[in-house]
DNA sequence: CATTCGTGGGT
DNA sequence: TACCCAAGAAT
């Protein structure tokens, strides 16, 4: 299979051109200051489906607060979620802490250096395993992300649908032969850096490309037609109503989201999905067993997820007496304490408009 | 294999 | 505006 893709391909020349380009042209990024496996690991988790420019400030703050594997292992979950607030895909940081604790307890605090062992850690999939092994330990392992599939689909004229899960293995098999055995770290990072800077999704900069002479897509004028990627269906919308509820002491009511699922364990303002013709008050009565008299809506917030859209209408209301449902996940907090809790971006917008 | 899981930026 | 997408993993 992979022999077919690498037939008549000048592997050594390609490796050298790519690695030399990377060594000369790589960006200075905070996680490239050290090969500490923990630091590399944290950066790779943050970079999953997330842009470099977005990650940089989060990475710097995270390493300041959790400089070592042990520091992260001992941290409170609310602290790590707060450090991740706004970054998205929050299971990443909970899985990271679970994995770090596993390393402390089962590997004497040393990140494992075999694919078998590192892949057993929570949140470490095929890409992250290869990235840490090659970057931190210099092992010739494939690290196939979206950049790598795009670059190699062009260079080797691979016309498989990269949206299919099975396609990743095609590139992994190719890379076991193709990855540089001299400098696997620079080779793997070079493929990704090339994808980020030159071999971009639209209008690739072929005239600046260090491996243009190796590129089969460029030879055939197909660089704009690759990779092949099927579309995914668009999101469905949900109508939501949220309320900033204040009591006589000037406190606001917040609640912790469920242990699993969307935005798991983040905090939010009480909210309901408005389904049929029932009023918003009736929905709150049914879900929270509290009687609220709502004023006119304060704002509307749209929260777009990968697979879902919330259209949130935000209300404010005063309550008297003891309207708390009594659940452990709900609590009244002084407004000044709001910054201690991690909220989804939509609820951060509510905070900015209603409480600050 | 397809879906779930965030967010912000680019075209 | 409406997509697409970015150093993916878990289910």
Automatic annotation (TrEMBL):
Gene3D superfamilies: Helix-hairpin-Helix base-excision DNA repair enzymes (C-terminal), Hypothetical protein, domain 2, Nucleoside Triphosphate Pyrophosphohydrolase
CC cofactor note: Binds 1 [4Fe-4S] cluster.
Keyword DNA-binding: yes
EC number(s) reported in the record: 3.2.2.31
Residue ranges annotated for the HhH-GPD domain, each copy included: 46-197
Superkingdom of source: Bacteria
Keyword terms of this UniProt record: 4Fe-4S, DNA damage, DNA repair, DNA-binding, Glycosidase, Hydrolase, Iron, Iron-sulfur, Metal-binding
One Pfam family here: NUDIX_4
Cofactors (names): [4Fe-4S] cluster
Enzymatic reactions: Hydrolyzes free adenine bases from 7,8-dihydro-8-oxoguanine:adenine mismatched double-stranded DNA, leaving an apurinic site
GO MF entry, a single one: oxidized purine DNA binding
GO biological process: base-excision repair; mismatch repair
Presence of keyword Isomerase: no
InterPro entries: A/G_AdeGlyc_MutY, DNA_glycosylase, Endonuclease3_FeS-loop_motif, Endouclease-III_FeS-bd_BS, HhH-GPD_domain, HhH_base_excis_C, HhH_motif, MIG/MutY
NCBIfam families tied to this protein: mutY (TIGR01084)
Entry's family note: Belongs to the Nth/MutY family.
Described function: Adenine glycosylase active on G-A mispairs. Base excision repair (BER) glycosylase that initiates repair of A:oxoG to C:G by removing the inappropriately paired adenine base from the DNA backbone, generating an abasic site product. 8-oxoguanine (oxoG) is a genotoxic DNA lesion resulting from oxidation of guanine; this residue is misread by replicative DNA polymerases, that insert adenine instead of cytosine opposite the oxidized damaged base. Shows a powerful dicrimination of A versus C, since it does not cleave cytosine in oxoG:C pairs.
Name listed for the protein in its UniProt record: Adenine DNA glycosylase
Originating organism: Halalkalibacter okhensis
